[in-house]
Amino acid sequence: METKIGVIDDFFAKINVVAIKLEGDISVGDTIHIKGHTTDITLAVDSMQVEHQSVQSAKKGDSIGIKINERARKDDIVYKVT
């Protein structure tokens, strides 16, 4: 089952990091699915940052950065896999 928890706000290609505006809660260890027009990525969150500080969890309203290994695009939807 998947629950929408956010939207990609930006993608930084040189460092393969996505900025996600959260609409739900997320923690390190959660599995996420990023889905868009040409994007379909499933990965486990092994680290994330809020304001350039590493955190273990984030909540609705936070903007987080997560390193990924593929290309994502602005406005792709982020789901938490449960």
CATH 4th-level superfamily: Translation factors
Class of secondary structure makeup = mainly beta
Instruction: Please write the CATH class name.
Output: Mainly Beta
Cα-to-Cα separation, first versus last residue: 5 Å
CATH architecture: Beta Barrel
Please compute the radius of gyration using only Cα atoms: 11 Å
Poorly predicted runs are none
- Beta strands, count: 10
The sequence of SSEs as H and E is EEEEEEEEEE
The strand order across the widest sheet is 5-4-10-1-2-9
Secondary structure: helix percent: under 10%
Largest sheet: 6 strands, antiparallel
**What number is the mean pLDDT?**
96
Shape: globular
- Helical run tally: 0
What is the CATH topology?
Elongation Factor Tu (Ef-tu), domain 3
The number of domains is 1
Proportion of β residues? over 45%
